[in-house]
Design brief:
Blueprint lengths: L1 H22 L5 H14 L10 H19 L2 H6 L1 H26 L5 H11 L4 H11 L3 H31 L4 H35 L5 H22 L3 H18 L5 H39 L5 H34 L6 H9 L5 H8 L15 H26 L6 H4 L4 H25 L7 H14 L7 H30 L5 H18 L11 H9 L8 H31 L6 H19 L12 H23 L5 H20 L1
Helix pairs in contact: 1-2, 1-12, 2-12, 3-10, 3-11, 3-12, 3-15, 5-6, 5-8, 5-13, 6-8, 6-16, 7-8, 8-9, 8-11, 9-10, 9-11, 10-11, 10-12, 12-16, 13-14, 13-16, 14-16, 15-16, 18-19, 18-25, 19-26, 20-21, 20-23, 20-24, 23-24, 25-26
């Protein structure tokens, strides 16, 4: 029960961290989550979790790296393969060698092999932290891709080096040729096995679909299980599970691009599910880090053999050494590349940004906690284990703080497109066109996939809505605002009359209770929409639509159940006609010289709906007026929201423009629901 409550509290803190970030956007979410984790551990009944490194890797690192592998552009990574491999392999081994000797020289109580282990676990950069920082600061695109590619690859090289360093510290035996051969075997085996396993799981999904099982829930569940299956099998065989899940993610993306049918419904559910899952996992990683910090600090604080000020000094010195080594490596590569290709050398500021962006994170902490308690004899404690864990945690925090402070100062505020978007309306308009095109493309595909349905007019209706929203309008027009307010008042008056008529029919037994409940729920949703500002974000999911109408219209069109469904539909249609008539009477009774035009517009809508219902149009066992077309429009709306989020995460737009685009999509959805 305690573990369950701790998990619930951590999930709540993830929500709190994102809310806090809205008020202090200059502080990255990972730092806020670490701070909240520290607070959660320090309160009297705080969280104290036992850290299981193996569980941490499979539960958090595997799905996060799989997702990075499947969404990172492969062509861009391939074009930047030289700097990525030099950072992910070359810099890791240089860091292990140089920092290992430096740590042993600075802290003689840490044996050389243990110092190499600490340097190895400090060498990998953190993909989650890099993505969080890049999303806030909007790093130059090339630097962002290099950092992403490096963080995908250097986990494996750092962990393999850490594994051999720990083995040398525990057993006192080390062979460089054997270690080199093992590294190549483990890395190459992980890449090949991950790609093969991912391909096989994709084939299984295709086979299931051909077998007639089209339920998207099954296929999304198989996607979520994929990284865990790949990681566990790879680690059991003895190859790199981390590189395996990265390769599996890349293979998944390749197969997705090659698919003949885009399967938008599956993509929609998959994107939404992964979005929630990744937000939870990312948040838990840094919250667990924060929860672990007080315990680490307490052990060092109570250790009389170590000065607390000296530990802080060691953390600063090691962090500075890692940044300097990274800068020298990047500078040397840039100088060599410019001479080889006879190009202008990369600006010094870009090299500094790349150096500072190499933040450490979850892999470093998990590796530090995986250090064994005793040496090979089973009796002697591992030398300075608590100090090594404290140094690792300190370097993680220090690298995050330094990056959070200096990256916003160093990031170019004028040249990148993401900064220019906020000041150039033309670029903002281009971003809005991308969002519009995403929705239209998906809508065309959905209509094309189901030509047997009478859904072709949905394209014209959706386009008409967009044209009206994009039409030039005067900002802050008091007359337009007054007309809108009068229209809302008239609609609310009509809704109240509808509700009164609905309850009267229910009391008189003219309408079944389940039908009345569903119809009143729809009135409640409509009223809540009208009582908000038109630019407020109003989200109605497809699940909610189905919930509203699944109980209202159900059953087959033949047999007893079919006849019952048709009777329910007929009673609902008759009730809605009476409700429209009551609404027209109520709105007409409230007409004055001031609200005449706005009220007449509302009356016209009610009369058109009443006329269509009286003719039997648009009302069937499947739901209310144009319910099928409504679902298609809402799927296009969701695709537009996903496009905005993807553009923001990729650095194509900044937070301000993303907010404007989301408001545009919200207005489009609101206008659809108003109809």
């Amino acid at each position: 029960m305690e573990t369950f409550l701790a998990v619930l509290l951590l999930l709540g803190l993830i929500t709190v961290s994102n809310i806090v970030n809205r008020f202090i956007p200059f502080v990255p979410v990972p730092l806020i989550q670490i701070g909240l984790g520290v607070i959660a551990a320090l309160v009297p009944t705080g969280i104290h979790m036992h850290f299981e490194p193996e569980l941490f890797f499979v539960l958090f690192i595997a799905p996060l790296l799989f997702n990075d592998g499947r969404r990172t552009p492969r062509d861009e990574l391939w074009n930047l393969r030289a700097p990525i491999l030099l950072l992910a392999l070359g810099l890791v081994f240089v860091t292990v060698f140089v920092a290992g000797y430096a740590i042993h020289w600075m802290i003689p109580s840490i044996p050389l092999a243990a110092a190499f282990a600490l340097a190895a676990i400090l060498s990998p950069t953190d993909a989650v932290a890099v993505s969080a920082l890049a999303g806030r600061v909007h790093l130059p695109k090339s630097i962002h891709r290099i950092l992403e590619g490096e963080s995908l690859m250097n986990d494996a090289s750092g962990l393999v080096a850490f594994k051999f360093a720990i083995a040398a510290a525990v057993t006192g035996v080390f062979s460089l040729p054997k270690a080199t051969f093992s590294f190549i075997l483990i890395a190459a085996g992980g890449l090949v096995l991950g790609a093969v396993l991912s391909f096989l799981l994709i084939r299984i999904s295709v086979f299931i679909r051909r077998f007639g099982m089209e339920d998207v829930t099954i296929h999304v569940l198989l996607q979520i299980l994929t990284p865990f299956i790949i990681y566990l099998i790879s680690e059991e065989i003895g190859v790199s599970g981390i590189l395996a899940v990265v390769a599996g993610g890349v293979m998944f993306a390749i197969e997705k691009d090659r698919a003949v049918s885009p399967q938008y419904k599956l993509q929609l559910v998959s994107a939404s599910t992964w979005s929630v899952l990744l937000m939870v996992l990312n948040g838990l990683v840094f919250l667990i880090l924060g929860v672990s910090v007080p315990d680490v600090v307490e052990v060092i604080y109570r250790d009389q053999t170590v000065s607390n000020f000296m530990v802080a000094g060691y953390v600063l010195a090691i962090t500075a050494l890692l940044i300097i080594l990274r800068f020298l490596w990047v500078y040397a590569y840039s100088h060599w590349e410019s001479r080889r290709l006879k190009l202008e050398k990369a600006p010094l500021k870009s090299q500094v940004i790349t150096s500072i962006s190499g933040v450490r994170g979850a892999v470093t902490l998990a590796g530090a906690f995986s250090i064994p308690l005793v040496l090979g004899d089973g009796i002697t404690p591992f030398p300075e284990r608590d100090l090594i864990i404290a140094l690792a945690a300190g370097v993680i925090l220090m690298s995050l703080v330094i990056a959070s402070i200096f990256l916003p100062l160093l990031a170019d505020k004028e040249e990148p497109a993401v900064q220019a978007i906020s000041s150039r309306s033309g670029t903002e308009l281009a971003a809005r066109n991308v969002v519009i095109d995403a929705g239209m493309t998906m809508l065309r595909s959905l209509v094309t996939e189901h030509p047997e349905r009478a859904t072709q007019p949905v394209l014209l209706e959706f386009t008409d809505k967009i044209d009206r929203l994009c039409a030039p309008k005067a900002d802050n027009d008091p007359e337009a605002e007054r007309f809108r307010r009068l229209g809302v008042e008239a609609k609310l008056s009509g809704l109240e009359a509808e509700r009164t008529e609905l309850r009267r029919m229910l009391d008189n037994g003219a309408l079944p209770a389940p039908v009345a409940v569903k119809m009143e729920e729809l009135l409640d949703h409509t009223e809540s929409l009208l009582c908000r500002r038109l630019d407020t974000q109003i989200k109605f999911s497809l699940t909610e639509i189905q919930r509203l109408f699944s109980g209202l219209f159900s059953g087959r069109i033949d047999g007893e159940e079919g006849r019952r469904a048709l009777q329910i539909a007929e009673s609902a249609r008759t009730a809605k006609i009476a409700m429209c008539q009551a609404a027209v009477s109520a709105v007409s009774a409230g007409i004055s010289d001031e609200n005449r035009l706005a009220s007449q517009k509302v009356i016209d809508k009610y009369e058109r709906l009443e006329s269509r219902l009286a003719q039997g149009e648009g009302w069937s066992k499947d739901g209310v007026l144009d319910n099928e077309k409504l679902e298609l429009k809402l799927q296009a709306i969701q695709e537009q929201r996903n496009t905005v989020q993807e553009m923001y995460q990729n650095g194509a737009i900044n937070l301000k423009v993303a907010g404007k685009l989301r408001r545009f999509v919200d207005q489009l959805e609101t206008s659809i629901w108003e109809d």
